[in-house]
Write a structure and sequence with these properties.
This protein is α/β, with parallel strands linked by helices and 198 residues long. The chain contains 7 helices and 7 strands, in the order H-H-E-H-E-H-E-H-E-H-E-H-E-E.
Length: 198
């Protein structure tokens, strides 16, 4: 792909043009613009992406994060993680702004507090294995990483594997569905720290 180094908009535009004619794992322009709006509104100091894929969504998040914020992006496949990290760097972002965690999400989440010193996550984007959505949310709760004001952006909620996650969200007063666009759900966390042990 041809894009201008150090210019996130150019990299994203190249992804969007590629996706018009080729199969792509990127969320696409419409969902991407929704992500832009949510990140800008929430302005988290710490964001977590589960499922890096090609790096497209990470780039969209990073360009809207406050300058002092950091993104942790999780990808279990090493080759995919390497390619995604390369695109993030091509877009002009530095390792001080993001950290790639190459592992399954179930292993990455417990590391965030214990090893990386993360105390809270303001934005979580889920775009990985839909059957991991619920266990990963419960792991985030267990670690005390989601609390009042945290926002979940969840892709592919129409998939059959996401049913348990949706049932949990809709039946739990700690969560409120704020909006849904283009198959992506925005969920807000409320009622204090969602934390069973810490």
């Amino acid at each position: 792909m041809n894009s201008t180094h150090g210019q996130p908009d150019s990299v994203l535009q190249t992804f969007d043009l590629y996706a018009q004619t080729q199969p792509s794992l990127s969320i696409g322009k419409e969902k991407g613009e929704f992500v832009d709006c949510v990140v800008h509104r929430v302005a988290p100091t710490c964001a977590l992406e589960l499922g890096t894929h090609c790096g497209y969504t990470a780039i969209r998040i990073l360009r809207r994060l406050p300058s002092s914020a950091k993104l942790y992006t999780v990808e279990q496949d090493p080759a995919t993680a390497e390619a995604g990290e390369e695109m993030i760097l091509v877009a002009g972002f530095k390792h001080s702004q993001f950290q790639m965690l190459i592992s399954p999400s179930s292993a990455a989440i417990p590391r965030m507090r214990a090893e990386l010193g993360v105390r809270a996550v303001g934005l979580v984007l889920m775009d990985h294995d839909v059957e991991q959505y619920l266990p990963d949310l419960q792991a985030l709760e267990q670690e005390g990483l989601v609390s009042t004001g945290s926002v979940l952006l969840v892709n592919n909620t129409h998939a059959q594997g996401a049913r348990d996650f949706l049932r949990y969200i809709h039946s739990n007063p700690r969560y409120s569905v704020h909006s849904q666009r283009h198959g992506m759900l925005e969920v807000q966390c409320q009622q204090g720290s969602i934390d069973g042990t810490r």
